[in-house]
Each structure stands twice: as C-alpha cells, then as structure tokens.
Amino acid sequence: MVILMIGPPGAGKGTQVERLSRRYCLDKVGTGDILRQEVVKKSELGVKVEGYMKKGQLVPDDIIIDVVAGRMEWGSGCRGYLLDGFPRTQEQAQRLDHLLQERGEKIDLVFNIEVSEPELIRRISGRRICTKCFRLYHIDYLKPQVDELCDYCGIPLIQREDDREEVVRKRLTLYREETEPLLEYYRCQSKLIDINGNSHTEEVFRQISAYIDSHLTHGSRSKKAELK
Ligand code: AP5
Q1: Please, which of 130, 141, 160, 204 could form a disulfide with 150 given CB 3.0 to 4.6 Å?
Q2: Is 53 near ligand 1, meaning CB less than 6 Å away?
C-alpha cells in the first residue's frame, strides 16, 4: 500500500504520519525529516540542501528523487509506505509514478489536509522540535512535560529555522504555486481525499483512519458520505 500526505506547511502531515505509520504498519518516508537529519549530521547531502531549506526554497527535484528512491530501496518490513511531503512538484509526481511502476506498485490513496491560513501560522509559530529524536511539540497544543525540554531526550527543544515568519510566507507561496496543482493530478485519478485538518489531532486521525480502513476492507475508496 502506498499513501501520500499532501498539505501546506504546518497542516499536521508529520503529526498524522507518525501515528498512522504505527497503526497500519506503514514505513514513513518524510522528505523534510530525512533532510533535517542529514543537516544535523552535516553529511554531504545535508550540506547540499541546508541553504535551500533555511530559505524555505524547494530542494532540487533530482536530489529529492534520489533520496526517496534510495529510502524505498531499503525495502520495508511493513505493509507499505506513507510518503510525507513528497511529491511537491509535477516532475516529482511523474518520477514517483515511474519509480512505483518499476517496483510493480501504485499509489492507493492521496490525502489532502486542508487547514486555514491563520491556524497554519498558529501551528508553525508554536512548533518546537527535538534535534536528537526529531519529535514534535507545540507550545499550546502539545506541551512537553517539562517546559522546553524533550520528554524522551531531556535536551532543549528548538524552533526550526524555516519556521521564522518571513520564511513561512515563502513556503506557503511555494506550496500554492508548485504543490497545489498536484491535487488536480490526483483528483483526476480518483485517488484524492480532502480532509478537514482544522480540527484537533485526534479528529483528523479518525477521519483519515476511516478512509484507510475502508480501503483495506473494500480495496477501493468509498464515498465520503458513507464515512461521515
Ligand atoms: P517539511 O518538513 O516537509 O515541511 P512542510 O511540508 O512545510 O511541512 P511541515 O513540517 O512544516 O508541517 P507538517 O504539515 O508536517 O505539520 P506538523 O505535523 O509538523 O519540509 C521542509 C523543507 O524541506 C522544505 O521547505 C524544502 O526545503 C525541503 N523539502 C522537503 N520535501 C521536499 C520535496 N519533496 N521537494 C523539495 N524540497 C523538499 O504540525 C505542525 C505543528 O502543529 C506541530 O507543532 C504539531 O504539534 C501541531 N499540530 C499538528 N496537527 C495539529 C492539530 N490537528 N491541532 C493542533 N495542533 C496540531
């Protein structure tokens, strides 16, 4: 099974993917997370991509596709893949189709998490992360047990460099220009499911899980109305 998670910065893709991967035994492939880990390690890849990420620009397609292809080559002991933040351009979408075709796989479901802009800004400005385990927190919605410290690693949480307001504006614009057109691409293939991501984490998880359960039971997407 291959599931894609699309949505603007701060929509909650990473939060949902974390939980869904555990519930459905799906291997999560989050391009943002993979790149951030490389930046922290100061690897060759990390050095190459750091500048783009800091400025809120998209990393070039060729680099990203190599990262995803390499990650999927490891194979997975899981039932399939949950792709978070990939594809983001038409080129990436086409190369993903090709990659999956070569592996005899296909995309099953594409979730489009929709969140209003003021809520996106609230989520991004309050987001904190641990630079060791990369767990996510939020100053209001998901507080650590001890102020500003990771519950698991005990080290200080940080704000992502690309979460500064001017960079966030740039990321949102790029999302509208480069990634939003992909929604139509998947809608035409009857794979797209719009999710109201404005509600709390549990409710968004319930909505997405209902579609995955239905897909697993019936092998195809059910109509929205049946699940409401
Ligand atoms: P990436 O890390 O993928 O950033 P993004 O897509 O902009 O998404 P975010 O991580 O900002 O948000 P999210 O939707 O995962 O929300 P989250 O769950 O954290 O990419 C970063 C950079 O890497 C890009 O700018 C680019 O440079 C590069 N890159 C990555 N992929 C690329 C690609 N394919 N092509 C080219 N370049 C690429 O939630 C946000 C906050 O809200 C958290 O604090 C969370 O606790 C809270 N929250 C989540 N859900 C809820 C809820 N329902 N209610 C209340 N709070 C919530």
Answers
A1: 130
A2: yes
Residue 168 corresponds to which tokens in the numbers above? Answer: 């966030």
Cβ–Cβ under 8 Å, residues 138 and 126: yes
Known active-site residue 88: yes
Confidence label for 73 from pLDDT (cuts 50, 70 and 90)? confident
Closest-CA residue, ligand 1 atom 11, reads 9
Domains of the chain: 2-116+164-227 (3.40.50.300)
pTM: 0.93
- Is the pLDDT score of 224 beyond 90? no
pLDDT tens digits, one per residue of 133-146: 999 999 999 999 99
In 31-162, the DSSP E strands lie at: 80-84, 109-114, 127-129, 136-138
- 127 classed as catalytic: yes
Q: Residue 205, class by beta-carbon neighbours within 10 Å (0-12 exposed, 13-18 middle, 19+ buried)?
A: middle
Structure tokens at 32: 């943002």
Sequence-ordered strand ranges (E) for 44-157: 80-84, 109-114, 127-129, 136-138
Determine what percent of the chain falls in helix, strand and coil, rounding each to the nearest 5.
50, 15, 30
Surface-to-core class of residue 199, CB atoms within 10 Å of its CB (0-12 exposed, 13-18 middle, 19+ buried):
middle
How far apart are alpha carbons 169 and 176 in whole angstroms? Answer: 11
Residue 107 backbone dihedrals phi, psi, to 5 degrees: -75, 130
Computed on alpha carbons and rounded to an integer, the radius of gyration of the chain in Å comes to 17
Residues 161 and 128: their CA atoms lie apart, in Å, by 11
